Amino acid sequence: MSQPSVVVFDVNETLSDLSQLAARFVDVGAPASMAQLWFAAVLRDGFAVSVSGGAKPFAEIGEENLRVLLPPAQPNRPVDDAVAHIMAGFAELVVHPDIAPGVHRLHEDGLRLVTLSNGARDVAEKLVADADIADCFEHLLSVEDVGVWKPDRRAYEHAATTCDVPLEEMLLVAVHPWDLDGAAKAGMQTAWLNRSEAHYPAVFTPPTHTIGSLEELPELLG
After folding, report:
1. pLDDT tens readout for residues 74-89
2. pLDDT of the residue at 222
3. Using CA atoms, how far apart are residues 174 and 156, in angstroms rounded to an integer?
4. Which domains does the chain have, with CATH numbers?
5. What stretch of H or E contains 192?
6. What is the pTM of this model?
């Protein structure tokens, strides 16, 4: 297997620490555990709409799912205000502690770095700028430019086309097995960022590498 020349990063949960959103749910009177339920519902509906040929922006699907989930929790403010408060939390997210050192090392090693998100580009732009790693990235890509969500093959092909390299020369770093499976089936190498020692589902293509921290990846890539 050839060494990758481009490392592609998923954004939500891989770079960004979504656990901070739990506090936003608590602010509006909902349980902190609803944050994980909500994010899973957004992915479910995003995949479903994309498969049926009508991909919608992450933010739109996120807002609509909040309007479904919040009323039974009896929020302490009007639902629209609660939705706005939670969605505004995306602008306040920070990267996981292992991200900045790992990104800097990969960049110093001469690898090309890009992001590929199911979310909006401006979210990734602020995230990497706040972490002082924006200069390490060549492109910040969003599936909104393609009209399909990952794990659709066309999303990964968009990254390869933009970077002008074959899919086989790219490596996707992600915390989500479904994302890694899609990338592997498209022909990419993969690295599962398993910070929580979770079980990797056997129904998905095994990752090329498994790491507990991004700081481990430069060593694996030699």
Report:
1. 999 999 999 999 999 9
2. 83
3. 13
4. 6-17+94-220 (3.40.50.1000), 18-92 (1.10.150.240)
5. strand 189-193
6. 0.96
